[in-house]
Amino acid sequence: MQYHILGITILGAALSLPTYGLGLQGEKENKAQPDKKVQGKGDHQAHHAMLEKCAKACNDCQRICDACARHCTHLVAEGKKEHVKTLRTCQDCASFCATAAQIVSRGGPFADLICKGCAEACNRCGKACKEHSDDMMQKCAEECARCEKACQEMVQHAGHLEKGTKTAKPMPEAPDR
Questions:
Q1: Residues 6 or more apart whose Cβ sits within 8 Å of residue 160
Q2: Which of 2, 70, 124, 137 could make an SS bond with 132 (beta carbons 3.0 to 4.6 A apart)?
Q3: Is 109 exposed, middle or buried (0-12, 13-18, 19+ CB in 10 A)?
Q4: Are residues 149 and 72 both part of a single domain?
Q5: How many domains does the chain fold into?
Q6: For residue 142, how many other CB atoms are within 10 A of its CB?
């Protein structure tokens, strides 16, 4: 039997894997349900471009936030304790961004979820860094704003996909034992 996952054909007869409602459909099911909308080639390319753009923005922001955290560490060591907050926000924002870049780049089913969190982390980190006038802090605030925007666009795009095209269904909860 052949399975189709977002336009990718997988041969699964020999594997006999359960589908757990993941939107996997055999040939017979596809023919029996011709009215379901499947992403076309143009939709797939646009979706891939959106994933790529967001993942790159997250990766760029992660690197700047890590660099800014290092910068804040030096400032705190010099006795500038007002940078403890930005040290921590930059570290946490970098972690959100790194995770978002990974999940989004592989087109994971939780991309919308991590992008919501990443956008909020970038918003908070950007505000904290913007309060300081040095170049590194301003650079971090600007990169956070770019990443926040890319993540918000990704969330909107993911919402559009859920309404307009066939997407994978979430796995059912495991039964209690």
A1: none
A2: 137
A3: middle
A4: yes
A5: 2
A6: 15
Any idea what DSSP says for residue 131? T
> What average pLDDT does this structure show over 103-127?
96
pLDDT score at 163: 54
On whether both 133 and 57 belong to a single domain, the answer is yes
Taking only the tens place, the pLDDT of each residue in 117-156 is 999 999 999 999 999 999 999 999 999 999 999 999 999 9
| Structural domain span for residue 107 | 41-164
Measure the CA–CA gap between 10 and 56, rounded to whole angstroms.
29
Nearest Cα to Cα of residue 100 among 55, 158, 53, 47 = 55
- Going from the C-alpha of 138 to that of each of 61, 143, 152, the distances in angstroms are 13, 9, 21
- Sign for the CA dihedral angle at 127, 129, 132, 135 comes to negative
When pLDDT is averaged across residues 23-43 and rounded to a whole number, the result is 45
Residues 70, 117 within the same domain: yes
Give the list of residues 6+ apart from residue 110 with CB closer than 8 angstroms, or none. Answer: 103
Distance of CA 65 to the CA centre of its chain: 17
Q: What is the pTM of this model?
A: 0.68
